[in-house]
Amino acid sequence: MKRMAFWLVAVTTLAGVVAFTAPAPGPADQQAAPVFGIKIYPGYRDWRLVSVAHEEGNLNDIRAILGNDLAIKAYRAGKLPFPDGTVIARLAWTYVASEENNKAFGRNQSFVPGPRPEWYLQFMVKDSKKYATTGGWGFAQFDKDGKPADEAMHKTCFPCHEPAKATDIVFTRYAP
Amino acid sequence: MKRMAFWLVAVTTLAGVVAFTAPAPGPADQQAAPVFGIKIYPGYRDWRLVSVAHEEGNLNDIRAILGNDLAIKAYRAGKLPFPDGTVIARLAWTYVASEENNKAFGRNQSFVPGPRPEWYLQFMVKDSKKYATTGGWGFAQFDKDGKPADEAMHKTCFPCHEPAKATDIVFTRYAP
């Protein structure tokens, strides 16, 4: 009985540690996004910062754009187009006022990330051969639980990005 | 003459590469901030993301909070107080509307980083012995060119942070 209690504690503790440290929101065997076949990149939350942004309107989120090593290297070198293997991740959080910060500042001015919104996570993956018909990029969108969006939604990515041809259809610039 | 032209091009190119890739804004022999004696941490721009924020009002900036390895580990483990050696960096950029993004979204909603504001960079450094009289934290603020703020400004940091005692006088939470 004692031993069983030990294991219960050990397993619960381990689950807690995994929940706190796991960088990907979904399980290891998570679903690939349709159209482009992209899965959530393990460790994306450890990638370096490209930039930040705030979207008003229906999105009403605050976001961080992270990049894998190839992305950061290309951004910093100012080299376009991005090389094959580049992956850019967009993380979004609900946009909430921080009462604690406002109290410290003495006025209502501070906005911080709240819980994940419905569409928490997106990836752009450069593979000029595999994704030749969509500007050399594959796109993927996942919800707050790591479930990919449907096919119809994934077909909207490229037409929206296409106007940004001058920057290899990537909207985000590197924050200096 | 040909050789001289080569060197001119080589040096100019090298200067360009350094300007693009150097993570710290100041020179290597840059000045330490007064009161706490903190210098800009080389490589801080490569640190992992803690969170993002937007400040309205006089600041009117959009910011990223990055942490060194100890900071990220402590945040993810939910462990307080932060261990000695923790360093948290706050990078701020001017808050500007993105015309390009707005065109893609079909409405005015998108805000992104512009050039560095006057007070671009701050650090909080945990050293419970060295900074015992200020909650175990040292504070440093640098302008957009890497020049530290004056002594008077550095004396305002701790009194403002002190109310956040429940979170080891750190305001920023980890963005999940």
Describe the protein's architecture and organization.
2 copies of one chain form a homodimer. With 176 residues, chain A is an alpha+beta fold. Chain A contains 5 helices and 6 strands, in the order αββαβαβββαα. In chain A, strands 1, 2, 3, 4, 5 and 6 form a 6-stranded antiparallel β-sheet that branches. In chain A, a hairpin with a 5-residue loop joins strand 1 and strand 2. The longest helix of chain A is centred in the N-terminal third of the chain and has 20 residues. Chain A is globular and about 55 Å long. The termini of chain A are far apart. Chains A and B meet through helix 1, strand 1, strand 2, strand 3 and helix 3 of A and helix 1, strand 1, strand 2, strand 3 and helix 3 of B. Strand 1 of chain A pairs antiparallel with strand 4 of chain B.
**Oligomeric state of the chains present here:** homodimer
**Cα separation of the termini of chain A:** 59 Å
Largest interface: A-B, 50 and 50 residues
Structural class of chain A: alpha+beta
* Proportion in β-strands of chain A: 15-25%
Shape of chain A: globular
Which radius of gyration of chain A do the C-alpha atoms yield? 19 Å
Low-confidence stretches of chain A: 1-22
Key structural traits:
homodimer; 176 residues; alpha+beta; six-stranded antiparallel sheet; 6 strands; globular; disordered N terminus
